[in-house]
Amino acid sequence: MPDTRITLTERELPRQWYNILADSPKPPAPVLHPVTMQPIGPDDLAPLFPMALIMQEVSTERWIDIPDEVRDVYKLWRPTPLHRALRLEKYLQTPAHIYYKYEGVSPVGSHKPNTAVAQAYYNKQEGVRRLATETGAGQWGSALAMACRMFDLECTVYMVKVSYQQKPYRRLLMETYGATVHASPSMETRAGQKVLAAKPDSPGSLGIAISEAVEDAATHDDTKYSLGSVLNHVLLHQTVIGQEAKAQLEKADDYPDVVIGSCGGGSNLAGLSYPFLADKLSGQRPNLRVVAVEPAACPTLTRGKYLYDFGDTVGLTPLVKMYTLGHTFVPAGIHAGGLRYHGDAPSLCLLYDEKIVEAVAYHQNPVFQAAVAFAQTEGIVAAPESAHAIKAAIDEALLAREEGKKKVILFNLSGHGNFDLQAYDDYLRGKLVDTEYSTAEVEQALAGLRQP
Questions:
Q1: Looking at the domain that runs over 5-10+67-109+233-446, which CATH code has it been given?
Q2: Can you give the C-alpha Rg of the chain in angstroms?
Q3: What is the mean pLDDT of the chain?
Q4: Do 325 and 298 form a contact (C-beta atoms < 8 A)?
Q5: What is the distance between the terminal CA atoms of the chain, rounded to a whole angstrom?
Q6: Domain boundaries in the chain?
Q7: Per-residue confidence (pLDDT) for residue 136, from 0 to 100
Q8: Are 48 and 10 in contact (CB under 8 A)?
Q9: Model confidence at 400, in pLDDT bands (50, 70, 90)?
């Protein structure tokens, strides 16, 4: 019988992060100043980020060393295990080999600490006292709260209001680590006050929460902003996932035909897939497929437009070229709060536009149907975000059964769902609504976007 769990030792923990910009098929579009619409430089970003992260953001070096202090914290849970989903394979009666990289073993139960720890470290090195951030489902906020405690930093989190209400234990976890958590939109910032004045019952969005966190950082000299996805340096830090997975699959004498990850901003998909995409871009594995999975309620890649847009709702952030539904679009309050973002990482959007990466979108009910099947076979209750990747992996495995072909499927189980049982309760009791995105709202959100 093949191994169920493939593990690495602490000595095999990656010592460098992989930067896909070194192998990108074309240079990324420049980041633009929100007022002048001209390319910005490192000094323009200094009010928000420490210079070390800014230099990583613009770097085209293929490999960037991981500081020993960061690796020491990583060792609390890394390397994470790679599982062969043998019971799921048997249940599906598929010839496919299904593997999943399980990031839910981290202290906060997701992949997010991979960058949270790095960001907290670099901010501490620059003498920052406090970090401000946003969070959707609460996984990023939990990760940064933990990382700030590791490096003796204060942490303020603006949590999307619908998730704040749906996921009280995520909020409690952040507060246990010492963070201050506000339901967003809040009265703590001018951005939040503006939204509430226009719509007092706003459920919030990641774009709104980003506006609040950015304003908080920009108006306090001792505070910097920290982001859990989208930016190049964030995706860079996540590549420890894919590097470990490559080493583990080599031990299993396997290599994926398709790599799958749920996609909100792009960090967990990129973290797993970018080290494999290096093989595709070099010509070693030209047939490798990478699939981004998003919710039908917020289908950024599959239904959005490739435009310059703000990363936040109010328009405080620089403009980046990405697939977007418009920075003012507020998606329905689905349980996969981490996937409710109007845009995606610029590097991922470039790869999608070049047809190097694929994308699919699913409704909530089939996603949770797949998640329940996974829980009943593999024993892990997945986060709603990760459940999207499970659904895509099952579809690929069923297609392999129909075609009678062996296929190696790798997906990122980016977090557990132990704090998301309300979502499962809603599914099991038939309360989930398969919400479509609003075409009219997207058209309105995209109307009038200035393009260079």
A1: 3.40.50.1100
A2: 20
A3: 95
A4: yes
A5: 58
A6: 5-10+67-109+233-446
A7: 85
A8: no
A9: very high
**What's the rounded Cα separation, in Å, for the pair 14 and 5?**
19
Report how far residue 134's alpha carbon sits from residue 143's, in angstroms, rounded to the nearest whole number.
Answer: 11
Residue 242 contacts residue 256 (beta carbons within 8 Å): no
- Structural element, H or E, at residue 251: helix 240-251
Does residue 316 surpass a pLDDT of 90? no
Per DSSP, the residues of 320-383 read: EEEEES-TT------S-GGG--SB--HHHHHHHHTTSSEEEEE-HHHHHHHHHHHHHHH---B-
Residues 6+ away with beta carbon under 8 Å from 169: 419
Structure tokens that stand for 46 in this block: 């200094």
Which pair of structure tokens corresponds to residue 419?
Answer: 């704090």
Q: Grade residue 314 by pLDDT with cuts at 50, 70 and 90.
A: confident
pTM for the full model?
0.95
- The Cβ of residue 359 has, within 10 Å, a number of other Cβ atoms equal to 22
**Pairwise CA distance, residues 219 & 385, whole Å:** 33
Q: Which amino acid is present at 125?
A: Q
Residue type, 291: V
What are the residues facing 155 on neighbouring strands?
A: 131
Neighbours of 60 (CB within 10 A): 12
**Residue range 265-286, pLDDT digits in tens:** 999 999 999 999 999 999 999 9
Secondary element (H or E) of residue 259: strand 258-262
* Structure tokens given for 161: 């209001």
b/e string for 19-40 if b means 16 or more Cβ within 10 A?
A: bbbebbeeebbebbebeeeeeb
E strands in 109-222: 130-135, 154-160, 180-184
